[in-house]
Amino acid sequence: MADSPIRPSSLINTVYGAFLRRLGGWISVADLITLMSELDVDGPAARSAISRLKKKGVLEPERRGATGYRLSQAAQPVFDEGDRRIFGSLEPAKLSDGWAMAVFSVPESERSYRYQLRTRLTWLGFGNIAPGVWLAPGRLLGDARDMLVRRGLSDYVHLFAADYAAFSDLPGTVSSWWDFPAIQEQYATFSRAYAPVAAELAQRRELDGGEAFRHYVPMLTQWRRLPYLDPGLPAELLPADWNAVAARQTFQQLHDVLAAPSLLHVQEVAGLAEGAPEA
């Protein structure tokens, strides 16, 4: 498990993102609380987390014979972007892909937008190279554009597809644009928690769906932050002891083993069919 407790709302987000989107997007409150109890989240904590996600616009109440919640339409693009980052960017970028550059200038009277821009660009994996100038591997350009439009921040930003021409030692310079030690500590925390789990499960021939679910949801919840903190820089620009590779291997191994039986377990608990149309 993770070194520190995972918030119930984060676990619920994972359940919706990993399973319920494939099962119609809706689940009854009773069944969701049952699933949360398997993750050691009691009923009051689960209900409180559901309420917070409703207030944030992530979940919408809907009754289908029983009281339940569905994933909101507004949240769908965020989860789609998450899929691309979590499952589609396991390999480092290539230098030949170039860079995405964001340049912004925000009037002092609207400085709250400045904070939002810094926060959102950091969350996407951009590094700060100078005041108001942010850089990321070129493959993040589309996600950056979508985020800026979705958040109503596009009027403050110029986005460029760029190439690095000169004059510094690029591997040495990028280490000042991103906090490599902090990123590596996050990967180390993940590996400490889940490499032993991967080793133990590799010796197993059979795995109960409930047990798979109890391993998979916390693991995926902890992992899904890392592809955002880590911009996926080209290997030539990373330290020789970069520990992301081993952590990614652990994640992929556990995903391959746990995802399918976990989905079946959610189907059985909630009585939902894969590919069921959304009402």
Structure explained in plain terms:
This protein is an alpha+beta fold and 279 residues long. Helix content is 53%, strand content 12%. The protein is built from eleven helices and seven strands. It has a four-stranded antiparallel sheet. Strands 1-3-2 form a three-stranded antiparallel sheet. Helix 1 crosses helix 9 and helix 5 (111-124) runs antiparallel to helix 6 (141-150). The longest helix has 27 residues, at 244-270. The protein starts with 7 loop residues before the first helix and ends in a 9-residue tail after the last helix.
Using brief descriptors, characterize the structure shown.
279 residues; 11 helices; 53% helix
Unreliably modeled segments: none
Shape: globular
Order of strands, main sheet, comes to 5-6-4-7
Give the integer mean of the pLDDT values.
Answer: 91
Tell me the fraction of residues in β-strands, as a range.
5-15%
Distance from first to last alpha carbon: 36 Å
Q: How many alpha or pi helices?
A: 11
List the quaternary state of the chains.
single chain
Q: What is the string of helix and strand elements?
A: HEHHEEHEHEEHEHHHHH
Write the layout of secondary structure elements.
Blueprint: H1 8-18, E1 26-28, H2 29-38, H3 43-55, E2 59-63, E3 67-71, H4 76-88, E4 99-104, H5 111-124, E5 127-130, E6 133-137, H6 141-150, E7 157-162, H7 170-177, H8 180-201, H9 209-223, H10 226-229, H11 244-270
